[in-house]
Protein: Alpha-galactosidase
Organism: Rasamsonia emersonii
Amino acid sequence: MVLSCSSKMTPRSVLFTAAAITAFLTTCSASIENPAIQPTPPMGFNNWARFECVLNETLFTETADAMVATGLRAAGYDRLNLDDCWMAYSRAPNGSLQWNETKFPHGLPWLADYVKARGFHLGIYEDSGNATCGGYPGSYGHEQLDAETFASWGIDYLKLDGCNVYPDTEQEYQARYSHWHQIFSNMSHPLVFSESAPAYFASGDNLTDWYTVMDWVPVYGELARHSTDILVYVGEGSAWDSIMVNYNYNLLLARYQAPGYYNDPDFLIADHPGLTLDEKRSHFALWASFSAPLIISAYIPALPDEVIAYLKNSDLIAVDQDRLAQQATLVSRDDSFDVLTRSLANGDQLLTVLNRGNDTASTSIAVARLGLEEAGCSYAAKDLWNGTWTTIVDGKIDIKDLASHATAVYRISLPPRCSAVVPTGMIFNTASKNCLTASSQHGISFAECNGDDTQVWQVRSSGTISPLSDQSACLTAEDGASVVGLSPCGKDKNQQWAYAVTGNLKNVASGVCLTEGAQNNTVTVCGFEKNTQVWALPSGVEVSR
Ligand SMILES: *[C@@H]1O[C@H](CO)[C@@H](O)[C@H](O)[C@H]1NC(C)=O
Ligand SMILES: *[C@@H]1O[C@H](CO)[C@@H](O)[C@H](O)[C@H]1NC(C)=O
Ligand SMILES: *[C@@H]1O[C@H](CO)[C@@H](O)[C@H](O)[C@H]1NC(C)=O
Ligand SMILES: *[C@@H]1O[C@H](CO)[C@@H](O)[C@H](O)[C@H]1NC(C)=O
Ligand SMILES: *[C@@H]1O[C@H](CO)[C@@H](O)[C@H](O)[C@H]1NC(C)=O
Ligand SMILES: *[C@@H]1O[C@H](CO)[C@@H](O)[C@H](O)[C@H]1NC(C)=O
Ligand SMILES: *[C@@H]1O[C@H](CO)[C@@H](O)[C@H](O)[C@H]1NC(C)=O
Ligand SMILES: *[C@@H]1O[C@H](CO)[C@@H](O)[C@H](O)[C@H]1NC(C)=O
Ligand SMILES: *[C@@H]1O[C@H](CO)[C@@H](O)[C@H](O)[C@H]1NC(C)=O
């Protein structure tokens, strides 16, 4: 079967309900339009962060055996991915890529068979440029041949890097990645396509090109390495800081994720010597809360039981693999705590609380902050670390004595009478990181995020937006659409806002965009993915593509 998708069918507004997913599957086909290629985020192993270029057949066979023996395979980790340096320095006379015969004495088709016999898929690495980052032959000009070669070796997953691309413009990357996408789309069994293109645009003051690359990766492939590499085993610096850097990047991109496409904040560095057990567990819980790829880069045969245990946590894996694939978003951020939430396919709501601070601390979170009704509703919460159920009393969830860098994570079940969830959380500029803030005198400002109710917004399905500090006040484009402020909620279109995958928050009446830094906190004419106009909104908000 040829997988293709009429481009006329792709731009649309999609609320990611189960019905919408079914509609996707039946009306269209290619990446986010064909979630069947990778319906939930990939799970598995990659050698890079742990071993870099020192990879070989033994490492992969030992890892496969250890993943079966420890139960990691049974828990869902079913991909073994080679990274850079698996190749010989030159192509064969007929142009095909060759593996390093010292590293892979039996060859990659043999290795693919070995891992398949144990329930795994084999994945591989190439580069869209003239050479890989490690200096091995790149795929540029050989794309069709390389795709056929990988498939003939029994490989069904490609991570495509972006070193040595000339010129290094957004347009050139788009041409190359779309070419690969077309090749895969024409294959009867398309390879899962992991795209590293955005990582080449993630730094810098002007983020327009990064956002532009992010616009196309969900259409071309199943996951994208969107930013910096996670710290390697022998790397200098703080492994926790590296995790936090990638975590913070991921928080900027929730709008792009949908069943079939996943933001990839990079590997789980489960045996990094610079991490405490609490930090490793947080890393895992945060990635699961994001529905991020769970790709372990560690020496699995030597992982201690306590690490295997959290990697196999079936409640957290179920969250990661939830078929809505919603990415948890920030409800609030203060000096110590990040509070995140998202919805799950069975109607449950996730609560994830990270203590970023340096001291053990306690907090209490009102259910209204998760978009849940308070009056007359009682909820049950399951602690996903130990399976304990508690009843939420007084509409508040108490988190007691959370250690520094530890994460609490709960799955909250909603009784049928109280099953409505209003997307709730921070609205922040993804370039400046400033929070939209309700100020006195019915104004708004853009301020440092502080966790206050004036920075927690409810985004209703009608398109109205209110701060928790005053739910009868709605964000309004006033005065001939030149000023934005808060006024009593009504039904006017100047109080309705539409969120686009571009990150723009557009006023339905006037078509102007919420803009940071304009005079009088104005709304202004929508530009193309300008730093001042790209916003992160709570998960569950309808995103038009
Ligand atoms: C294979 O790779 C592992 C991990 O880097 C290394 O410890 C081992 O020495 C390598 N084996 C060979 C034969 O190169
Ligand atoms: C092939 O692998 C061997 C063993 O790791 C290594 O010494 C050699 O440099 C590799 N060749 C290339 C082209 O990377
Ligand atoms: C190209 O050559 C390699 C060995 O040098 C061989 O394994 C492969 O089958 C050849 N490819 C084609 C398409 O003939
Ligand atoms: C990259 O490869 C292309 C095609 O082989 C070639 O035309 C170009 O000169 C190379 N560029 C660099 C900088 O090596
Ligand atoms: C894919 O198939 C279509 C239709 O057969 C063809 O027009 C196109 O050139 C092919 N693309 C690639 C990259 O092979
Ligand atoms: C930001 O980059 C985009 C795309 O490269 C460009 O069109 C735009 O003018 C730049 N904006 C500023 C303020 O430099
Ligand atoms: C925690 O400690 C580190 C280093 O001691 C310091 O750089 C950082 O600012 C502290 N973080 C907080 C939230 O206090
Ligand atoms: C589970 O963990 C919570 C804190 O996260 C603790 O209050 C509770 O006592 C634990 N239950 C068990 C059975 O360990
Ligand atoms: C900003 O507000 C002042 C005072 O309300 C007003 O005079 C001015 O025209 C406004 N500027 C814009 C660009 O709306």
